[in-house]
Amino acid sequence: MRSWIKVGLALLVAGGGCTDDGDADSNRALAAEAASARPAGPPPAPPPPPMTAADSAVAREAVAARGAALRAAFDSLRVLGAREVAELRLDRNAEQIAVARSLGIRASGAAEIERLRRQGRLVELDDSTTYWVLREMDHSVPVVTPDGRAMLIELGRRFHARLDSLGLPLYRMKVTSALRTDESQADLRRTNRNASRTVSAHEFGTTVDVSHERFAVPAPRAQPDTAHAEVQEMETEMLEELGKEKARQLQAELGRAIWALRNEGALRVMMEDAQPVYHMTVARRHTSAAP
């Protein structure tokens, strides 16, 4: 009797298994059918039609008019006065090195830089951000301490706030130099007579050079699908030319933002001539510096 019960249970289990498989196949088929019947999302917007010669002329005229208005706004600004330039040259190399030693960290080569980066004691600078772009670096690497990066971000915010209050485009800084090793500093001395003959503040990850005669156009904004690439190119070309033409006004607004931070004890600065850069060293810990 028990053997028959076992056989019956086995048949029930087997029969149930076949039924489940059939239901699963049926369910899968229904799900596939429902998915195929489900309405698809809206198709991507088609690209805008090519601009006619007349449209292109109208757009070029509008961009030129905006450029003229921006040029007039720039012309109303003061360039740096002699006193302001002198104030931006107060922090000599020895002072910046002393601050760099106290707040920075020295890396002897690529392997150590990578180890410190993994530990979060050094961080990379992005190639292109809202506030800066990196220039090609022959004798340094785009790596700084978290404090150094936080200083650069805060400076970018201050610079943009000044430009925005004046109704000007948000031009970006060009970072030309960051961390150097003792070896790369020695290489630089062979080609640049202005390079430090001993140790450099750049060797501690606390110091960056930012051009004061060249600026990058504002970061690209998200454009609607209907925007014409040709119009965007016109706008970029206009801003590039304007940035070159009005570099001294941009230099002044960036210099004033730097001076304000310097007065708050956030950084040290030397406005250099032979190398047209603001040479800056972070001078305090920044609360937003955590990697």
Which tags fit this structure?
291 residues; alpha+beta; two-stranded antiparallel sheet; 9 helices; 51% helix; disordered N terminus
Main β-sheet: number of strands, strand sense, barrel status? 5 strands, mixed
Uncertain segments are: 1-22
- Structural class category: alpha+beta
Q: Looking at the chains present, what oligomeric state does this protein adopt?
A: single chain
> What string gives the helices and strands in order?
HHHHHEEEHEHEHHEE
Separation of termini?
A: 74 Å
- Strand order, sheet with most strands: 2-4-5-7-6
Count of alpha/pi helices: 9
Categorize the overall geometry. globular
| Residue-averaged pLDDT | 84
Instruction: Give a count of the beta strands, DSSP E runs of length 2 or more.
Output: 7
Strand content: 5-15%
| Radius of gyration from CA coordinates | 30 Å
Task: Give a description of the structure.
It is globular, with a radius of gyration of 30 Å. Strand 6 (267-271) and strand 7 form a beta hairpin. The strands form two sheets. The protein has a five-stranded mixed beta sheet, sandwiched between helices. Strands 1-3 form a two-stranded antiparallel sheet. It has a domain at 80-282. The N and C termini lie far apart (74 Å). It is built from nine helices and seven strands. By secondary structure, it is an alpha+beta fold. Residues 1-22 have low confidence and may be disordered. The relative contact order is 0.15. Helix content is 51%, strand content 10%.
